[in-house]
Amino acid sequence: MRFSTAFFTTLTLTLVGFVATTHAADTPTPVPCVVKPATIVEQQAINDQFNDQFYISRDIVGAYSHLTSDYINHKPDITDGQLASFNFVYPLLDKSSNLSVTVQILHTSFKPPFAWVHWRADGFMPRPTAILDIYRYNGTCIVEHWDVVEEVPENPVSTHPLF
Fold it and tell me: Is residue 141 a contact partner of residue 68, using CB atoms and an 8 Å limit?
Protein backbone atom coordinates (compact mmCIF):
# COMPACT_ATOMS: atom_id res chain seq x y z
CA MET A 1 0.00 0.00 0.00
CA ARG A 2 1.49 3.35 -1.05
CA PHE A 3 0.82 6.56 0.83
CA SER A 4 0.82 9.99 -0.70
CA THR A 5 3.18 12.79 0.27
CA ALA A 6 0.15 14.59 1.71
CA PHE A 7 -0.44 11.65 4.08
CA PHE A 8 3.12 11.80 5.42
CA THR A 9 3.02 15.59 5.66
CA THR A 10 -0.22 15.38 7.66
CA LEU A 11 1.20 12.62 9.87
CA THR A 12 4.39 14.59 10.46
CA LEU A 13 2.52 17.79 11.27
CA THR A 14 0.22 15.88 13.62
CA LEU A 15 3.17 14.32 15.44
CA VAL A 16 4.99 17.64 15.62
CA GLY A 17 1.86 19.38 16.87
CA PHE A 18 1.39 16.68 19.51
CA VAL A 19 4.93 16.83 20.80
CA ALA A 20 5.25 20.59 20.42
CA THR A 21 3.00 20.98 23.43
CA THR A 22 5.77 19.36 25.49
CA HIS A 23 8.53 21.36 23.78
CA ALA A 24 9.24 23.84 26.57
CA ALA A 25 9.81 27.50 25.80
CA ASP A 26 13.11 27.27 27.66
CA THR A 27 14.45 24.47 25.44
CA PRO A 28 18.13 25.14 24.82
CA THR A 29 19.06 25.95 21.25
CA PRO A 30 22.28 24.85 19.59
CA VAL A 31 25.06 27.26 18.74
CA PRO A 32 25.66 27.16 14.96
CA CYS A 33 28.89 25.64 13.70
CA VAL A 34 31.39 28.07 12.18
CA VAL A 35 33.23 26.53 9.23
CA LYS A 36 36.95 26.02 9.81
CA PRO A 37 39.38 23.96 7.74
CA ALA A 38 39.63 20.32 8.82
CA THR A 39 41.65 17.31 7.80
CA ILE A 40 39.89 14.11 6.77
CA VAL A 41 40.82 12.59 10.14
CA GLU A 42 39.28 15.57 11.96
CA GLN A 43 36.14 15.38 9.81
CA GLN A 44 35.82 11.66 10.57
CA ALA A 45 36.04 12.38 14.31
CA ILE A 46 33.42 15.14 13.99
CA ASN A 47 31.16 12.80 12.01
CA ASP A 48 31.56 10.06 14.64
CA GLN A 49 30.69 12.54 17.39
CA PHE A 50 27.64 13.78 15.46
CA ASN A 51 26.42 10.21 14.87
CA ASP A 52 26.82 9.39 18.56
CA GLN A 53 25.00 12.55 19.66
CA PHE A 54 22.17 12.34 17.12
CA TYR A 55 21.45 8.62 16.82
CA ILE A 56 22.77 7.00 20.02
CA SER A 57 22.70 9.41 22.97
CA ARG A 58 19.96 11.47 21.29
CA ASP A 59 21.56 14.75 22.40
CA ILE A 60 19.95 16.81 19.66
CA VAL A 61 21.27 20.14 20.98
CA GLY A 62 24.83 18.76 20.88
CA ALA A 63 24.35 17.15 17.47
CA TYR A 64 22.96 20.35 15.98
CA SER A 65 26.03 22.29 17.10
CA HIS A 66 27.70 20.63 14.09
CA LEU A 67 25.31 22.36 11.63
CA THR A 68 25.88 25.80 10.15
CA SER A 69 23.19 28.45 10.60
CA ASP A 70 22.55 28.43 6.83
CA TYR A 71 22.40 24.62 6.64
CA ILE A 72 20.67 23.47 3.43
CA ASN A 73 17.90 20.93 4.01
CA HIS A 74 16.39 19.05 1.07
CA LYS A 75 13.57 17.61 3.20
CA PRO A 76 10.39 19.07 1.66
CA ASP A 77 8.66 19.58 5.04
CA ILE A 78 11.38 21.80 6.54
CA THR A 79 12.90 25.08 5.45
CA ASP A 80 16.65 25.65 5.30
CA GLY A 81 18.59 26.66 8.37
CA GLN A 82 19.88 24.98 11.49
CA LEU A 83 17.13 26.33 13.73
CA ALA A 84 14.25 25.28 11.44
CA SER A 85 15.56 21.72 11.32
CA PHE A 86 16.27 21.69 15.06
CA ASN A 87 12.73 22.83 15.87
CA PHE A 88 11.37 19.98 13.74
CA VAL A 89 13.66 17.21 15.05
CA TYR A 90 14.13 18.10 18.73
CA PRO A 91 10.60 17.20 19.93
CA LEU A 92 10.70 13.94 17.96
CA LEU A 93 14.14 12.55 18.78
CA ASP A 94 15.74 14.28 21.75
CA LYS A 95 16.29 12.09 24.81
CA SER A 96 13.82 14.35 26.68
CA SER A 97 11.02 13.64 24.16
CA ASN A 98 7.77 12.11 25.39
CA LEU A 99 7.57 9.96 22.26
CA SER A 100 8.65 6.36 22.50
CA VAL A 101 10.92 6.21 19.46
CA THR A 102 13.75 3.70 19.20
CA VAL A 103 16.66 4.16 16.83
CA GLN A 104 19.04 1.56 15.44
CA ILE A 105 21.96 2.45 13.18
CA LEU A 106 22.30 -0.19 10.45
CA HIS A 107 25.05 1.18 8.17
CA THR A 108 27.28 4.23 8.04
CA SER A 109 29.88 5.55 5.65
CA PHE A 110 32.10 8.59 5.43
CA LYS A 111 33.80 9.63 2.22
CA PRO A 112 34.57 13.35 2.38
CA PRO A 113 32.74 15.54 1.93
CA PHE A 114 29.79 13.14 2.31
CA ALA A 115 28.58 10.95 5.16
CA TRP A 116 25.51 8.77 5.27
CA VAL A 117 23.59 6.82 7.89
CA HIS A 118 21.03 4.10 7.17
CA TRP A 119 18.92 3.63 10.27
CA ARG A 120 15.76 2.06 11.58
CA ALA A 121 13.19 3.98 13.59
CA ASP A 122 10.38 2.35 15.52
CA GLY A 123 7.65 4.57 16.92
CA PHE A 124 7.45 7.26 14.23
CA MET A 125 4.87 5.40 12.19
CA PRO A 126 2.74 2.29 12.81
CA ARG A 127 5.41 0.01 11.31
CA PRO A 128 9.21 0.18 11.37
CA THR A 129 10.68 2.90 9.19
CA ALA A 130 13.92 2.87 7.20
CA ILE A 131 15.70 6.20 6.94
CA LEU A 132 18.78 7.15 4.95
CA ASP A 133 20.37 10.45 5.95
CA ILE A 134 23.06 11.95 3.72
CA TYR A 135 25.19 14.84 4.98
CA ARG A 136 27.69 17.11 3.23
CA TYR A 137 30.54 18.58 5.21
CA ASN A 138 32.49 21.76 4.65
CA GLY A 139 35.52 21.66 6.93
CA THR A 140 34.32 21.21 10.51
CA CYS A 141 30.59 21.63 9.79
CA ILE A 142 27.60 19.90 8.26
CA VAL A 143 26.27 22.25 5.59
CA GLU A 144 23.71 20.15 3.68
CA HIS A 145 21.30 17.23 4.24
CA TRP A 146 19.13 14.85 2.20
CA ASP A 147 16.98 12.00 3.46
CA VAL A 148 14.91 9.12 2.20
CA VAL A 149 12.19 7.80 4.52
CA GLU A 150 10.11 4.66 3.95
CA GLU A 151 7.84 2.71 6.24
CA VAL A 152 7.91 -1.08 5.90
CA PRO A 153 4.84 -2.01 3.81
CA GLU A 154 1.98 -3.80 5.54
CA ASN A 155 2.39 -6.90 3.36
CA PRO A 156 5.92 -6.89 1.93
CA VAL A 157 6.75 -9.31 -0.84
CA SER A 158 10.43 -9.33 0.10
CA THR A 159 11.57 -11.49 3.01
CA HIS A 160 14.03 -8.76 4.03
CA PRO A 161 12.30 -5.43 3.34
CA LEU A 162 14.39 -2.34 3.98
CA PHE A 163 16.64 -3.83 6.70
Answer: yes
Distance between CA 19 and CA 97 in Å, rounded? Answer: 8
| 21 φ, ψ (degrees, to nearest 5) | -65, -20
* 76 phi/psi in degrees, rounded to 5: -65, -20
Convert the pLDDT of each residue in 40-73 to its tens digit: 999 999 999 999 999 999 999 999 999 999 999 9
Q: Which helix (H) or strand (E) holds 132?
A: strand 129-138
Specify whether the backbone of 150 is left (phi greater than 0), alpha (psi in -120 to 50) or beta: beta
- Determine whether domain 39-151 maps to CATH 1.10.3720.10: no
Q: How far apart are CA 154 and CA 147, in angstroms?
A: 22
Instruction: Indicate the domain borders of the chain.
Output: 39-151
Q: Supply the angle between the helices 82-93 and 5-20 in degrees, to the nearest 10.
A: 80
Instruction: Give the pLDDT confidence of 112-142 residue by residue, as tens digits.
Output: 999 999 999 999 899 999 999 999 999 999 9
Give me the phi and psi of 121, to 5 degrees please.
-120, 130
Integer Cα distance of 121 and 46 in angstroms? 23
Distance CA 135, CA 85 (A): 13
